[in-house]
Amino acid sequence: MAGYFDYLGKVLTEKGSWYKILMICALQGIAIFFSPKPIMNQMAAGSMPQFNVPGIILYLLCSMLVFGFVIQVYNYFMNNKTQLLPDVDFADMFLKSIRIIPFVLVWIVYFTIFGVLLAFLSAAGPKSGFSFTLLMVIFVGFMLFLAFMFAVMLILHAKDFSYKYLLNPLTPFNLFSKVAGPVTVLVLLYGLINVVLYGLFFGAMFLIGISGGEAATVSSMVAIGIAGLVFLYLNNAFSFAYSLKFADIVKSKLAGTKYLGDEFATPVSSGVENDDELDY
Length: 280
Hints:
Blueprint: H1 4-13, H2 17-33, H3 37-44, H4 53-78, H5 90-99, H6 101-124, H7 132-160, H8 171-212, H9 218-254
Helix pairs in contact: 1-9, 2-4, 2-9, 4-5, 4-7, 4-9, 6-7, 7-8, 8-9
């Protein structure tokens, strides 16, 4: 099983990957620019929000395209395609995001049911036999479990968009022990990488701000723009490598089971000598 940094190297060096990552950066930039956050801030302040309908549509469309690209990445990987990052096909990216909506709705129901149950127990108070602290521990723990298994189930679903086994609420519990260990290590590694990456980015912003003085010069604005683009590019590269390694773990651990009957194979498994499952 290939390691995280094997996938990162492939993502950064695969033919045409720079163009694909830049296209995703562009879509994210548009989504950030048209983010509805100002509308939410206006509502929170109690004022009448000013809706920019074309902006909201662009935000939703770009967000769906980015999400659809991630689903394409999972789909390619789980179907043993040699290409790690798929070609930028807006129509297919949009359709992939649409096809995943029913699956997402099912998981929203799971989260909602558990949230309602916990709210009911909390309202019952001491009569329920559970202390508030215990309820919060259960709530946080189970929400983390659901978020953890949502990613696993999403990868399985992205293979062929089949709902076999995936609608069974017991499936996440059956799979958890198989993938929990290596995925936890991967999540911790990815978290550490993000701490370093964000630290470098904000450190660069601080240094640019100091060198620019009180008045923002053209050169400092250009430097900020370049630093932001480099950060977004690297952040996406690290994120795609994380997604591929996550899928690698799911595929290797579930290969040969009723959930995934294929023999295990990955696009970068050849030439990787160390097959240790925790080789990151």
